[in-house]
Design brief:
about 475 residues, Alkaline Phosphatase, subunit A, Arylsulfatase, C-terminal domain, 2 domains, 4-stranded antiparallel beta sheet, 16 strands, about 15% strand
Length: about 475
């Protein structure tokens, strides 16, 4: 009897913000192939990561658990591959499994990918041009552009798979991660235009001390490697800042354009091989990114631009074309969802819930109406203080607790603890911290109670 379980093609990029995808309303670029996944399937408008930085988000996706459970709290933690992951369970259940591209969870021993029949991953961040890969652990250098190569490896593996068994393939792009090096094909894209500035470009950070202290400002906190040129000498400080934004955002969008082209190659391959109907195709990114928003690049903060993950999903058997899903989903929910589609039980250690029904348009009455977040990497790299918080449909509560708590990859220097609260309807850009204001006492108490509840639910420990 033929195996009717669906294939899963999980395409994830690195640092691709939803607001640089046209189906999410981007005003700065177009992404026709990502848009095609959404128009032939669903666009999820409220998918959030539990920790907005590369390695922790990747660990969460594999294990279906928050950082304090899977052990990858910061960029310095290696993933312990002996823990339960969804690829391991799917492989054991007869799926063919592979991962190509960015791994970023350590190398050697238990940190190497487990649960995959085949893998070729970039060492650490990897290079954009002529990159080295660890091919099943063996170091090998390839000529070409990283986004094309990762797609080549993926398609080659698909070509040579056993067509009688389902597959689960993770195609993990390095792009558009810093230092934003485009390929030759897109090098001159946007040369003749100015990319518009985001609404919050001139954020003054009043009421938000952690934001004021962050070292991720476009211009001031960028390097020559980021900008690939020195600002022209005649520019004023303000002009140099605008110049840096144009340099940065254009290279970022050029890298995105190559990702989008390569997604088109994969969609075409599925069509040509008659696999579009029985393959769940997902495009997402490990977290969002600041695209000049709040004057910044990078991520880490629980603010919308970095917290939100783009997430589009095509699966003609269950997901109606052109659907828009508003229900809240967290990246702990990915693994349970994939296991559900594969007809497998979700192990008790996993903390997420399957959103299979939600994607099909049926939102259960008791569906989650808040998500939990915790960024652990106190002050390292960009001066962002560690914090945790809760987001509901209408509000967000954040606590900057002000210490490293002994985490590796943090800076052991205390900062002043304080809370932030935002009304996301009145203040969607999160410019006005209203925590402690008299007009919010009711909702503030509810949010504190919800945060307490989530910390108990997920087994995390509040900082006293
Ligand atoms: Ca990332």
């Amino acid at each position: 009897m033929p195996d009717s379980r669906p294939n899963i093609l999980f395409i994830m990029s690195d640092d691709h913000a939803a607001h640089a995808i046209s189906t999410y309303g981007s005003v700065i670029n177009e992404t026709p192939n990502i848009d095609r996944i959404a128009s032939e399937g669903a666009r999820f408008d409220n998918v959030f990561c539990g920790n907005a930085i590369c390695a922790p988000s990747r660990a969460t996706i594999l294990a279906g658990t928050h950082s304090h459970v899977n052990g990858v709290l910061t960029l310095s933690d290696r993933f312990d591959g002996s823990q339960v992951t969804f690829p391991k369970l799917m492989q054991a259940a007869g799926y063919q499994t592979a991962i190509f591209g960015k791994w970023h969870l350590g190398h050697g021993g238990e940190a190497d990918p487990t649960g995959f029949d085949a893998w070729s991953v970039l060492p650490g961040q990897g290079d954009y041009h002529d990159p080295t890969f660890f091919v099943q652990g063996e170091e090998q250098r390839f000529d070409g552009y990283v986004t094309d190569l990762i797609t080549d490896f993926s398609l080659d593996w698909l070509e040579h798979r056993d067509p009688d068994r389902p597959f689960m393939l993770m195609t993990h792009h390095k792009a558009p991660h810093r230092p934003w090096e485009p390929d030759d094909k897109h090098a001159a894209m946007y040369d003749d235009i100015d990319i518009p500035l985001p609404e919050t470009w001139d954020d003054d950070y009043a009421t938000r001390p952690a934001a004021e202290a962050a070292l991720m400002r476009v211009g001031r906190d960028m390097t020559f490697t980021d900008l690939k040129a020195e600002p022209p000498a005649h520019l004023s400080d303000e002009e140099a800042r605008h110049w840096a934004y144009q340099r940065y955002i254009k290279d970022y969008l050029r890298c995105v354009a190559a990702v989008d082209d390569n997604i088109g190659r994969m969609l075409d391959w599925l069509d040509a091989n008659d696999l579009a109907d029985n393959t769940i195709v997902i495009y997402t990114s490990d977290q969002g990114f600041f695209l000049g928003d709040h004057g910044w690049y990078d991520k880490r903060f629980m603010y919308e631009e970095s917290l939100r993950m783009p997430f589009v999903m095509r699966y003609p058997r269950e997901v109606a074309p052109g659907s828009v899903v508003d229900a809240m989903v967290s990246n702990i929910d990915f693994a349970p969802t994939f296991l559900d589609h594969a007809g497998l039980d979700v192990p008790g250690v996993m903390q997420g819930v399957s959103f299979r029904e939600v994607a099909g348009g049926q939102v259960p009455e008791e569906w989650q109406d808040s998500i939990y977040y915790r960024y652990w990497m106190h002050l390292e790299h960009h001066g962002v203080a560690a914090h945790y918080g809760v987001r509901t449909a209408t509000h967000k509560l954040i606590y900057y607790y002000g210490e490293a708590l002994g985490t590796t990859g943090s800076i052991d220097r205390d900062t002043e603890p304080y809370w932030e609260l935002f009304d996301l309807q009145a203040d969607p850009n999160e410019l006005n911290n209203i925590h402690g204001g008299p007009e919010v006492s009711g909702v503030q108490a509810e949010l504190h109670a919800e945060l307490d509840r989530l910390m108990v639910h997920y087994g995390d420990t509040p900082v006293a």
